[in-house]
Specification:
elongated, alpha+beta, three-stranded antiparallel beta sheet, 23% helix
Length: 77
């Protein structure tokens, strides 16, 4: 499974891929156009198999796992 850093953490349960995930975020429609979302960069990491015990799925371990995954990474092309 993949996770993407787009200033928010997206868990790709439906395996959209980062391009389609960005498209879904940018094409979301909000009442009165209150938000205009433009994604400027994306980081992608393989997070292995998802389970209820995955570190990103636990409040006590999510932040540390996020930092482990996404600190000092290169941006994809």
């Amino acid at each position: 499974m993949k996770a993407y850093k787009i200033e928010i953490l997206v868990i790709d349960h439906d395996k959209l891929g980062w391009i389609d995930t960005v498209s879904e975020i940018q094409n979301a429609r909000f009442p009165n156009d209150c938000l205009n979302l433009i994604v400027k960069s994306v980081s992608e990491k393989d997070i292995g198999e998802w389970s209820d015990d995955h570190p990103l799925n636990k409040a006590a371990t999510c932040e540390a796992e996020y930092k482990r995954l996404f600190s000092n990474e290169a941006q994809p092309d």
